Amino acid sequence: MKKLLRRIKILLQRIFTRFAPNSQQPSPSPLINSNSRPRSLETSIPSVSPRWESGLVLVCSQCTNEQSGSTASEDLENWLKSRLKFEGLWGDFRVVSTSCLGVCPRIGVTVVLVSNGSYGNSPCLIVNPRSDRELLYSYIKQNKD
Q1: Mean pLDDT to the nearest integer, 60-80
Q2: How far apart are CA 84 and CA 90, in angstroms?
Q3: Neighbours of 60 (CB within 10 A)
């Protein structure tokens, strides 16, 4: 048992040494194979094709927590989900609640629409969760591929 614990300790030390940020030892990259050629991320990290190819709608759940404990962001998220399902677009889009997005408007909820065609330029919208619902939904539908 002592030998096993010693071996585990040695293995853990090697692992920590190899992946330490200030390590002076050159460590072999996990993305380099025995032929010293970099492997592509596709072969080392599994990927999937999501059903929501047209877009991902991120609704900040913290915006209304700061504003009198309201559940307006949750109501907006549920409304969007049901509307997308009713229109038959639920598979194309996905509505997800997120933690703070760092925008923190005084009034409204932060919503970000991420789509395949946005290429890092995802619009960040400040939405009144009650009066801007239809406008937001129209905007989401316009971004369908």
Answers
A1: 77
A2: 5
A3: 28
